[in-house]
Specification:
The chain is about 15% helix and about 30% strand. The chain is of the alpha+beta class and about 90 residues long. The chain has a domain of about 55 residues. A four-stranded antiparallel beta sheet has the order 1-2-3-4. A hairpin with a 6-residue loop joins strand 3 and strand 4. The chain is globular.
C-alpha cells in the first residue's frame, strides 16, 4: 500500500492553495466570519460569512492585512448587503 498522497485529494480543511495556517474566526458587528489565507502573491484572503443567510462570502487580494483591516473589509462587505435578500445590492 502506497503512502504517497493521491493527486486531487486533500483534507477538507486544507484547500489546494491554502497556507496550512488555521483560519481566523472573527465576529464583526454581530456577524461571524472565517478568514483563510491562500498561498501566493498577492496575498489572498477568503472571508466565509458563517452567520449569513446563504453560503456566501468574499475574497480580498493585496498586501497582508491586520485584524483591524480584516474587520474593516468585513464591514464594507456588510454595508453592501441587501437586508431583504441577504445578497450584494444590485
Amino acid at each position: 500500500m502506497s503512502t504517497e498522497p493521491e493527486p486531487g485529494l486533500a483534507p477538507a480543511h486544507v484547500g489546494p492553495r491554502h497556507t496550512g495556517d488555521e483560519p481566523i474566526m472573527m465576529t464583526v458587528d454581530g456577524q461571524e466570519f472565517r478568514v483563510s489565507r491562500r498561498v501566493g502573491r498577492p496575498v489572498t484572503y477568503d472571508f466565509d460569512w458563517l452567520s449569513g443567510p446563504h453560503d456566501y462570502g468574499f475574497t480580498s487580494s493585496g498586501p497582508a492585512m491586520t485584524r483591524a483591516e480584516m474587520a474593516e473589509a468585513i464591514r464594507a462587505f456588510l454595508r453592501d448587503i441587501d437586508p431583504v435578500t441577504g445578497y450584494l445590492r444590485e
